[in-house]
Amino acid sequence: MWEYLVRRTAQSLLTLLLISIVTFGLIHAAPGGPATMFIKPGQSPEQVARQMELWGLDRPLHIQYLDWLGRMTRGDFGNTFRANRPVGELLWPALKNTVILMGTAWLLSLLVAIPWGIYNSTRQYGISDNLAAAVGYAGFAMPAFWFGIILQVTFALTLKWLPLSDMHSMSRRGEFLDLLRHMVLPVMTLVLINLASYLKYSRASMLEVLGQDYVRTARAKGVPERKVVFRHALRNALIPIITVLGLDLPYIVGGAALTETVFNWPGMGRLFVDNAMAREYTVLMGVTVVTAFVVILGNLLADILYAAVDPRVRLTGKGVTSA
Amino acid sequence: MSTEPKAAAPAEETAVLSTKPESLGHQVLRKFLGNKLAIMGLILLLFFIVVALLAPYIAPYEPAKVDLLSSNKGPSAAHWLGTDNIGRDVFSRLLYGSRVSLVVGFSVAAGAVILGSLVGSVAGYLGGWVDTVLMRLIDVMLSFPGLFLNILVLAIFGSHFVYLILIMVFTSWMGVARLVRGQFLQLREMQYVEAARAIGVPSWQIMFNHLLRNATGPIIVAATLNVGGAILGESALSFLGLGVQAPQTSWGQMLSNAQQYMLVNPVFAVYPGLCIFLTVLAVNFVGDGIRDAMDPRQKIHIPKGRMAEWRARFSKSRA
């Protein structure tokens, strides 16, 4: 187990390192590089050179990269070019807001998808199952941001039940109920995206387990159907779902970025989109690395949990082998 | 799911009578044509393709023609779906938008399939450290939100249409590569591969002539599903202002415009989104239809009524 843990963690760190190199490389491969941020037309070469020196952009690339990496491990993401503010000041509140939004949506979609998927697996091709299939098709084919806009038009503009966008009303900053009211529409949007895949996987996973011999044995020896489904089948069916939760993470993060933009939610996704337009490289690099870190951590946790929960998975130094 | 192909009973009876067994392609085609959702999707997709091809002939106005005097108008005889904030005809813009979506959808899918097949076949056929390195690369690519990478590249290098397609190809080939690798791992142990190798067929020919051809089925399915993903991706990027730029039109761009003027005219947000939704839905239905038709393990779903009829006619123990 320990060997597997260490190996898997090392892999994750390597992945993170690669992503940081790619991000850094991309930004410095851009025509003009980060310098285009502050060079104004009409500046003399000496002025430009002084600016470059000031931001440390005159040093060799690998030194710049190592410096950036080293400072990042200490939580220093550098300053923004325009306002000269520490990137961390923008980044951490945004991360918190994204976690609030995504976490709620994620929990809610699991709470809906797993029981519904279980129900559908016991009544295949019933009304509920077909409805879930329809939800799945809609969720996979609908642009998330469009669904968000439709919700805004319906519930905020037409019915006026809920606020249109933002995280707080101007006068009620910090009130919990106000936050809750602002969360309803973006959470609904995210739940629809998540539901499509979670429903499909929980149903498929249950169906697979319900078809296995030990379930037949349990039924044959007279175990009540309720107990067969919830005690015998569900436990094993949940295991593959854990992996899917980990693998789906990048997809959800992407969806969250769009949803945040639609609802003007001050999270990581919106921070990234806004600063992409403004070409604030330090912010872009910071957000990319932090997002990658969160996603990779999620994947790692899912893998470890998977290995811990399933007794059939034997851990060897070489990775996971099924017994 | 209700997408399972329904078995056509008469066709099966004739299959028994004729001496020659039904060819595989014929079988797949029959199963596909028996799938209502797939046919619906195909018709819808063909409709959008025709619209995209004929857009200049159908569109009543130039999609980028600004007419500030008649801005934000509701539907009328002159402008079927009204005009937007600077007086552009919404209907004409929708028609032209279908071109962008379909071109991006199909070219990204094609690119992803080519790149993915290449990487997947090399990894699957050669195995060893090449395989390990390539699979690690895929893991890295998969653990990174593709949308963020797309935004990053387009923001840095500028939003050219070609860049848009290239970066989307670059962030969507991994699924196909994994699939092809999996197929190759199975297929390379086949005896015909051994035979080919024994008579001295070069490796690249075994890879592309023997193995890849046998993996065509799953690749086609993955490609269709990629088309839908690419259309959604383009709309997202254009919505964020990083995809297709004005004066060109795309559905995603129209949506971002519609959201800005939501207070003035909320209906404009409906049309482009509905178009994206229907196109992707159509592509996904077709993809699922092909998958179901080609999967020999796919159980045939017999409606309860027909099953009861069959029981009543053939079962010996009558209940």
Structure description:
The complex is a heterodimer of chains A (323) and B (319). Chain A is mainly alpha-helical and 323 residues long. Chain A has helices spanning 2-29, 45-54, 61-73, 87-122, 127-141, 144-158, 176-210, 213-220, 225-247, 249-263, 268-278, 281-309; strands at residues 313-316, 319-322. Helix content of chain A is 74%, strand content 2%. In chain A, helix 4 (87-122) runs parallel beside helix 12 and helix 8 runs antiparallel to helix 9 (225-247). The relative contact order of chain A is 0.13. Chain B is mostly helical and 319 residues long. In chain B, 69% of the residues lie in helices and 0% in strands. Chain B starts with 8 loop residues before the first helix and ends in a 5-residue tail after the last helix.
Question: What topology does this entry show?
Answer:
The complex is a heterodimer of chains A (323) and B (319).
Chain A: H1 2-29, H2 45-54, H3 61-73, H4 87-122, H5 127-141, H6 144-158, H7 176-210, H8 213-220, H9 225-247, H10 249-263, H11 268-278, H12 281-309, E1 313-316, E2 319-322
Antiparallel strand pairs in A: 1-2
Helix pairs in contact in A: 1-12, 4-7, 4-12, 5-7, 6-7, 6-10, 7-9, 7-10, 8-9, 9-12, 10-11, 11-12
Chain B: H1 9-17, H2 24-33, H3 36-58, H4 90-126, H5 128-142, H6 146-157, H7 161-170, H8 174-187, H9 191-198, H10 203-214, H11 216-239, H12 251-260, H13 270-294, H14 304-314
Order of helices and strands of chain B: HHHHHHHHHHHHHH
Q: Structural class given helices, strands, pairing of chain A? A: mainly alpha
Helix/strand-derived category of chain B reads mainly alpha
Strand content of chain A: under 5%
Parts with pLDDT < 50 across at least 5 consecutive residues of chain A: none
> Residue share in helices of chain B?
55-70%
Shape of chain B: globular
Encode the helix/strand succession of chain A as letters: HHHHHHHHHHHHEE
Question: Taking strands numbered 1, 2, ... along the chain, how are they ordered across the largest sheet of chain A?
Answer: 1-2
Helix content of chain A: over 70%
Average predicted confidence as pLDDT of chain B: 83
Tally of DSSP β-strands of chain A: 2
Q: Name the biggest interface.
A: A-B, 52 and 46 residues
Low-confidence stretches of chain B: none
Number of continuous helical runs of chain A: 12
Span between N and C termini of chain A?
Answer: 15 Å
Shape summary of chain A: globular
As a whole number of angstroms, the C-alpha radius of gyration of chain A is 24 Å
On the 0 to 100 scale, the average pLDDT of chain A is 84
**Number of strand elements of chain B:** 0
Strand residue content of chain B:
under 5%
